[in-house]
Target: Branched-chain amino acid transport system ATP-binding protein
Amino acid sequence: MMLEIDDLHAGYRRLEILHGLTLHVDRGEIVSLIGANGAGKTTTLRAVAGLISPTGGRISFDGQEMNRLKPHQIVRSGLVHVAQDRALFGDLQVLENLEMGAYTQSRSTVRQSLDEVYALFPILAERRTQRADTLSGGQQQMLAIGRAMMARPTCLTLDEPSIGLAPNLVAQVLEAIQRIRESGVTVLIVEQNASQALAISDRAYVIESGSIVLDGPAAELADDPRVREAYLGV
Ligand code: ATP
Model:
């Protein structure tokens, strides 16, 4: 297992949001975590990224316990998070944003990473000198993912990468995520847009009120009447 979350309890101050959440992601997989608004998806990814401290349970990555690590130590270990709000530096250029993502890297690998990100998202190469806040929503999402890739992750976590995007851009972003996996990166995606996420995932988990209530191969979940009714609007 590459990422293992076992009996995780976490939340905000005295408000517990995750009540013993357990899931894992194997090396090379795309796994999605789907669930309704407020179910605890973002909280799960924030705990994994070290942005909130778990009050119980265990998170391990590549065999190493992560609970007490700081966010930058987690990035250095190879696990990189793309937040839902994208957190770009709006007044900096595309290239400068990408370089910010490479702060853990040596100069020599930055050039190679840039080439890889531009191959993944050619539009970012075209717009390299443009300010990030002048990009469209879809381009900003590509930049957020590209910046994360600049840290040369072995595992990427993505919080609702398709949110607010037009359907053709959703397809482009999801296709890029598949290519990222093909390059050897393990992926955990959180999505409300369940049908799209399931279509590119190997396995999936359904979260309700801070616990996993259902899991299995993505294709099976996409056919499950409970998932279809609650999350696919069928
Ligand atoms: P969404 O799709 O809305 O992001 P989610 O499944 O990702 O949903 P979370 O963002 O993890 O859900 O939120 C779970 C619960 O935690 C919600 O009830 C939310 O109101 C609460 N919550 C989120 N952030 C905070 C915070 N900073 N302080 C207090 N409560 C919070």
About this structure: The first strand starts at residue 3 and ends at 12. The first helix runs from residue 41 to 48. Residues 3-230 form a domain with the Rossmann fold fold (CATH 3.40.50.300). The mean pLDDT is 93.
